[in-house]
Amino acid sequence: MPASEHVDIRWHIGDVADAIAAGLEARVDLDRSAQEVSGIDALDEVALHPIIADSLEQAGFGVHREQRYPSDRQRRKRTEGRRCDLVLTPSKRPLQDPQAAATLFDDPDAVPLNRAYWLEVKTVAQFTPEGPNAAWSSELLGTVRSDVSKLAKDSMILNAALLIVLWTATREVANNDLGIWQNRCIDHGLPIGAPAERTLAIQDRLGNTCCVFRIYPVHHM
Predict the structure, then answer these.
(1) What is the pLDDT of residue 145?
(2) Cα 121 from Cα 48, distance rounded (Å)
(3) Strand-strand pairing, 131-132 and 127-128
């Protein structure tokens, strides 16, 4: 029997959070020792993805970037359809390709799409290289909620979460605004669960002194 059929996969959000925290802290320490002019908080969201992906890989996860949502895989062209930032598998196992099922290219150790961990990533900085972020509220309260909706509405995704990474002047700012965001999601009926949170200090180069991130589990709507 293929490994993907008889091994029970259990996802622990705390393990994912610990892996990301370790990777971000390592990068912050590297920037500090190298006396970099710009810190990690100056990176845009796309540039942060490889750091997060590497953090998870170092912790032993399989990390598959920019994967099409299962419901969008009905499209004939692989270039079509919405994509999820990161899809995780345990023990660095491959992710199953439904189109390879029952062919010579079907890896018996691959993890089915509905048993992998689908993770959307959103990062927002209170201060950017251009100064205070005028779009702070709209980025946090608007576009982030759309990621929750995407994950929640795909019936083939059983394990999903939204990672929100905030770079702020104080931890209090992050906690306050994340609390507002969380309440807005609940008010709109978006199915988020209790988050795992991690905090780390960063060197103040732009006005941000800390990183606060939360991983919110997302359930079906």
Answers:
(1) 78
(2) 9
(3) antiparallel
Mean pLDDT computed over every residue of the chain: 89
pLDDT single digits (tens) 79-88: 667 899 999 9
169-204, pLDDT tens digit by residue?
999 999 999 999 999 999 989 999 999 999 999 999
Q: Identity (one letter) of the amino acid at 8? A: D
CB within 8 Å of 213: residues ≥ 6 apart: 17, 20, 21, 24, 163, 164, 165, 166, 197, 198, 199
Question: Please, what is the Cα angle at 148 between 174 and 99, to 5 degrees?
Answer: 135
| Model pTM score | 0.90
Dist CA 36 CA 55 (whole Å): 20
Q: Give bridge partners of residue 199 from the DSSP assignment.
A: 212
> Which of 205, 201, 200, 183 minimizes the C-alpha distance to 192?
183
Q: What is the pLDDT of residue 77?
A: 65
Q: Residue 95: CB partners within 8 Å, gap ≥ 6?
A: 62, 64, 67, 87, 89, 110, 111, 113, 116
DSSP 192: B
Token pair 């023990």 is found at 91
- The rounded distance, in Å, linking the Cα atoms of 136 and 58 is 31
Cβ atoms of residues 219 and 194 within 8 Å: no
Q: For residue 209, what is the DSSP state?
A: -
Confidence of residue 57 (pLDDT cuts 50, 70, 90): very high
